[in-house]
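Section handout 9: paired folding examples.
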Amino acid sequence: MSLNYDGALAIYEPTLGLEVHVELNTKSKMFCGCATEFGAQPNTQTCPVCLGLPGSLPVVNKRAIESSILIGLALNCSIAPFSRFARKNYFYPDMPKNFQTSQYDEPICVNGYLDVDVETDEGNKTFRVEIERVHMEEDTGKSLHVGGATGRIHGADHSLLDYNRAGIPLVEIVTKIVPNTGKYAPLVARAYVATLRDILRALKVSDVKMEQGSLRCDVNLSLSKVGSGKLGTRSETKNVNSLRSVERAVTGEIIRHANRLESGEKIVQETRHFLEESGETRPGRSKEQAEDYRYFPEPDLVPVVPDAKWIEELRTLLPEKPADRRKRLQTAWAVPDKEMNAMVNAELLDTVEQTVLLGADPTKARSWWLGEISRIANDKAVSPTDLITVNDVAQIIELISKGELTDKLARQVVEGVIAKEGSPSEVIAKRGLKVVSDDSQLMKAIEEAIAAAPDTADKVRGGNIPAAGALIGAVMKLTGGQADAAKVRELLLKHLGQ
């Protein structure tokens, strides 16, 4: 009988370890002047240095060092007064040099922590995830496997290599083991990556777009018998590229480990690939130990020795912590927890704040971005901010507040802007979307509606106020939805003696 998730946790307790790779948004690569723009034609952003050609010499990117220090400071790390690069030797097709320039025993940041909040059965609980190290390295190239059904090497006819990504500055953030998470292990892993992503975005050191690979998570997991106090053999699920997938990868590996152990099989220390369609993992390669990489100091690069004064200057540049900012905005906007979480989960908090800073009412800004605009974005499978600008939304909300647009008309304006018909004012002019506010025009429509439904009008005269809804609806129809419903109601009831 196979174990499900609850069954697995009745027997075993999980231990997590998370490694997050972050591509820095520097304009040039880690050790050369090649551009780092995403989406360029394959192999057009390369040079002798990032291709590892004989005689080429690397030079460290100062901005990458600065970004790494900022990350370390934001994660409560100690900044090493002396660190250096090493060569990590292993063969892989997308490694043009057949070694990766990384940091091994002397990383730039050590011994930090990040507190993450998770909603548990007992309410909100804070888990502390301790950081082992933050180190600098370079990214590898990218393999494209052609001809197979899955896009992976198995079953492919041939592979293509794009070295544009090779040499892009990369920071790896490695946690210490994370024990005592119990059944919340998947949620802790997700919350950690989400919180880390928020911090990196606030630092402006990376665009942290997981779908483009600029933030990737390796999930290490092991199980041990409940109460044994021993660590089990770990597996490492590589390059998980969404928050949902991080959670699913932890859940799936807990179930897989538990079932193997219960059937008497051993856990193999290996890398594994996450399968989006099933939430399961499959074997990659056996996991090497540090000595297998034959690390040795990089002879072509001098050690990194950041000045203590410079470090303190960088500390003053740290932005408001994302958690503190959320609490501040939640208080200022009087937003319930559920709606604040919705904005955060939809990655629209920054967008809503920008809209509010342009003068929009917070409630209306939140409603439009999370409502109509997100609905259209979901239908088109794009980000809401790809469809319409913050300025346009703020202008539409202002027109609503002035009474120049109803919500119904505003939806048509949003649709027009998204359809590239122009700015909100241009869409309004082209479509003739103007609120009918002239009393004489409204009264004409009201009298026409009453004449068409005299029985309903009599009910309202007799005190049945809810019956007025049908008449108001008729007036809105007669005016093409361009009347102010509140004003129609006021005039209608007054006209019928109520």
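Moving on to protein 2 of 2.
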Amino acid sequence: MKTTYYGQSTIMIETEGKKLLFDPFITPNPAAKQIDINALQPDYILVSHGHGDHVADLIAIQKSSGAKVICIAEIADWLNKQGIENVHGMNIGGGFNFDFGRVKMVNAVHSSTLPDGSSGGNPAGFVLYAEGKKIYFAGDTALTYDMKLLEDENLDWAFLPIGDNYTMGVDDAIKATRFINCNNVIGVHYDTFPVISIDKDDAIEKFIKAGVNIKLPAIGEETAL
């Protein structure tokens, strides 16, 4: 299993011969201008919530690839109205078995409105069960005690937002690692905009001091999970 980082919160996880793309925001991001979204060709697109910096390329990539979109029910309904029918709607607390493994939708504390002003339902995170591994994609979220519900999952990796302002910052993300009992973290949702810029060296030092294996990959960089 491996993941590739495409900036902001956009990641691709490749597992069981399938490509899972999370929160596609690439073309509006100057730092990701070298990425050709038509070359990605995911089998699935997982959407945590409706904000533009998570769905900007959703429709274009879905139409290019024919990928099945996994998202909360309100976003599924919105996509149906855009003419996209290959959608699997879920809701928080529910799980479903797909051909690559299982996905469970979990709580996130944030907001969710789609670019046209439509309701995006509730924000969410995902836990992926595949290849005997358990991967947590937190989405955009504050530190929340609901994360303690994942403490006994024995997570292998967690994708956590660290940019502050709109989501957890570094210090709260470190607290989150204790709540979820996971010491392997890939940081996301930072440096894309001035208000979420971070001191990467300082962030890495704080995570290491807390005993956390932290990775802040460059855009396009692959990481084995």
